[in-house]
Specification:
Layout lengths: L4 E5 L1 E5 L2 E5 L2 H9 L3 E5 L8 H5 L4 E4 L23 H16 L4 E4 L1 H9 L4 E2 L2 H4 L17 E5 L4 H6 L3 E4 L6 E2 L6 E7 L4 E6 L6 E4 L13 H14 L2 H4 L12
Parallel strand pairs: 1-4, 1-5, 5-6, 6-13
Antiparallel strand pairs: 2-3, 7-10, 8-9, 8-11, 11-12, 12-13
The structure holds manganese (II) ion (MN).
Length: 256
Amino acid sequence: MNRPLIAISGSIRRYDGTDRAGVNAAYARSIAQAGGIPIILTPAIGAEAAAQALAPVQGLILTGGHDVDPQHYEAPPSPALGPLDPARDDFELALFGAARQRKLPVLGICRGLQVINVALGGTLWQDLPSERPGAIQHDSEVSRNARTHHVLVKEPSHLAQALGTGKLVTNSFHHQAIRDLAPGLQVTAWAEDGVIEGVEETGTDGWLLAVQWHPEEFHQEPGSADQLLFHALVGAASASPGRRAGWETAPGRLHG
Ligand code: MN
């Protein structure tokens, strides 16, 4: 099998006194395990060169991280807004725009789901505990693969098909979430308090899924529903855009 190249958007973080460019290894492991070749793209590349950086790849993952600057959805900053990373915002918005132009399959994870919603014209809750208090703790201090709340997935949906289930218990490390859904997106997963946990785009020949939890953290459970998301992305990336055009009418092709 010719393994597709999957770009993973990275961040720059200070660690041990040095700025380091990278991603959590769990993303790269999940993609490699699903049969893709992970290619890490750093915001140091710059927004102007995002399209060129994507040229060799067949798919894109937008990953977790800092809060999106609310100026991108024309909201005043909440006092509870977390740290921002303007260079990463600009780079990922450019990556997403370039990926859409090429109709590349895109999987958004946590911040990635939020970036996609904002890029397409939606808005975010800037801080769930202060703006939309609910019964469920979405950001607790537990291990990265602790399954802490239920997620209900709409059936049928491309997300349910990719996961192989309509109901699961996920990890959760987010204090933000989708507020106003962007035009063109459909909500396909919710937590029990109504917080949006998954979206997808329908009605185009692109391939766009996004989830609010962190499926990559379950790379040590290769057969889990979470990990099947990466198989679905790799499968879509392996198919030609012409074949993917059938995703509306022949969703059985999702796994390539
Ligand atoms: Mn959650």
